[in-house]
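Exam revision sheet. Question 4 asks you to relate a sequence to its structure. Input first:
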Amino acid sequence: MNVYSYEGAWFWILFYLWVVLETISWVRARMLRRGQPRKQNDDRGSAALIMIGMYVLLFISITFSIRHLGILPRWTQYISYVLMIAGMIIRFTAIIQLGRFFSPVVGVVSNQEIVQSGLYRRIRHPAYTGGFITAVGIGLGLRTWWGVLLCGIGLLLIYAYRIRVEEKVLVQHFGEKYLEYRKRTWRMFPGIW
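Answer key, structure tokens:
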């Protein structure tokens, strides 16, 4: 199955669905936060790093796929569909559960609360977990080991930076309340990290 043929169409449908959902979530976040007082921007470039980093990782991964470097077996594309769908479900469920507190840029609003229900009961950053799973699915869907490694490890490193920035801001804002929440939850992967 060639990812650039009719047989690979499901990959591209899921890929563009992901792009559309990401765009909607960013626009929705801006609309929900319109008019709310916001503390200073504490993002430290992490939103730009995620956006630019993901595009660069995708571009390089697509290049490896086009050049047939590190090509994976045909059946891996089917696994990619499952990973992409599961990752998107996790990511966008987490974003919906955050509601008006979701923002692509790190910063808190004056009336912000720590969401501790739903996916956030055990994982502090389930939207990043979903993003990671989706990215691995995209790399796998391109049917190249390089895509899996680049999208997976690359995005994980970017998310690790983002989490460090975000948690510093949350500890500054919530203090002991966030530290207690942090003690009983995992960053992205229950039982691992």
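Marking note for examiners. Residues 45-105+116-183 form a domain with the Four Helix Bundle (Hemerythrin (Met), subunit A) fold (CATH 1.20.120.1630).
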